[in-house]
Amino acid sequence: MNGSGVNATAAGTVRQALLMAGLLGSATLLMVACSSGEDLVTTAAPPSTQSYGSVHGHGAPLPADADPQSAKFNVTPAQRGFLDALTAAGVHPSSELEALSIGSHVCQAHAAGQSDQAVWDYIAPMVRSDVVDAGSPPHTAPDPQVTAATADYIRIATQQLC
């Protein structure tokens, strides 16, 4: 081999090494730049206080000495009328907050232009869960009770809240 062939091979190797270093450096820079932003990576801190409650039967259990009806919160006259009308109709929700949540869902479904059947299909599982939360065993919540409660929730929410 002559001297110029060795120099050409060495120069090619150097160029290849520089190209690889440049590509790897660029890739590394992009990866670091894309992954280090505060807006892309969020951290979760544990809550400073523990909250109790449930959402449609799911959530942290209440302590043994807690009364789910004892939570005090402000309700509007329309909301109070809704809650009173539910009681008058024989509907006994697991909590006032759950009843207001179901009523709010009824109004949202109506506002979204859903058909009566779509509103029923959307609300019925929430009512069934609330009937179970109020004391009926999960697999024995009587269908007539759930059907009547669902009809009452939809009718009363439509009249009183929406």
UniProtKB/TrEMBL annotation:
It comes from the Bacteria. Pfam families: DUF732 (PF05305). Residues 79-162 form the DUF732 domain. This is DUF732 domain-containing protein. It comes from Mycolicibacterium aromaticivorans JS19b1 = JCM 16368.
